[in-house]
Amino acid sequence: MSDTLTLLSPAKLNLFLHITGQRGDGYHELQTLFQLLDWGDRLQFESDNSGEISLHGADLGIPAEQNLIVKAAQALPRNTSKQGVSIHLEKRIPEGGGLGGGSSNAATTLLAMNYLWNLRLGDKALQKIGAKLGADVPVFVAGHTAWAEGIGEFLTPVELPETWYLVIAPGCHVSTAEIFSNEQLTRNTSPIKMAAFFEGNSRNDCQQLVRNLHKEVDNALNWLDNFGTAKLTGTGACVFASFDDKQSATSALSQLPESMSGFVARGINTSPVLNALVGPKV
């Protein structure tokens, strides 16, 4: 068995986001539908006997020890103190874009090291560890497109029909903490049933606030509205529109102004990480 794994760490879209309340501890109650994408970062893991956890790759922006990838590996128990890993990150998911890059990287690391270090931790145990790293980590550990409630920890897998998305990165960073702490954020949206979403009765409660605060996001939404219903993912900054086929999405991308960047991705119901790690370890 190889001690090296190379995995696609998938991005996600929030197809809608309702803020239904705020708890006493400050966390927001929400409803959302996480759509996994067949596009994301690439992580390579090489386990060794150094006892060290190291992270390499492009400019990470922060010290390696503060990165969620390293924190995820450190959060796992190890069978021996000699178990170590060298991790290489190929970053494509923009930071502060609402695509779940950091959370996906953390979850991919938990799943990869559970496999390589032969820890035999179950899905629930890994999700519990992941929840301490970030509210969106459990959905990436579970590895399925899912309806989420609570603070994002109550997950119901959903099978969605194949859809293609054009995702636009406006070139600005939106702070989740700043949006959730803003007094203008709507926090009392009434909960909906899943059927209401499929009937079109949903929105992103953060969208108007983010476009008011960030002209780049407003411009991206206005441009993308020419091709379909443009939506903000998460707290932003990225925006997206759905298409029935790859050709239509790619055609729209070809007309993207030079001031913006974007990509086309297919919505998937199962994470490529789960597909790669399926089957018993031998």
From TrEMBL:
Enzyme Commission code: 2.7.1.148
Domain of life (superkingdom): Bacteria
Amino acids binding ATP: 94-104
Catalytic function, reaction form: 4-CDP-2-C-methyl-D-erythritol + ATP = 4-CDP-2-C-methyl-D-erythritol 2-phosphate + ADP + H(+)
Pathway note: Isoprenoid biosynthesis; isopentenyl diphosphate biosynthesis via DXP pathway; isopentenyl diphosphate from 1-deoxy-D-xylulose 5-phosphate: step 3/6
Top-level enzyme category: transferase
Keyword set includes ATP-binding: yes
Active site: 12, 136
Protein role: Catalyzes the phosphorylation of the position 2 hydroxy group of 4-diphosphocytidyl-2C-methyl-D-erythritol.
Xref: HAMAP family: IspE
Protein name: 4-diphosphocytidyl-2-C-methyl-D-erythritol kinase
Organism of origin: Candidatus Seongchinamella marina
Phylogenetic classification of the source organism: Bacteria, Pseudomonadati, Pseudomonadota, Gammaproteobacteria, Cellvibrionales
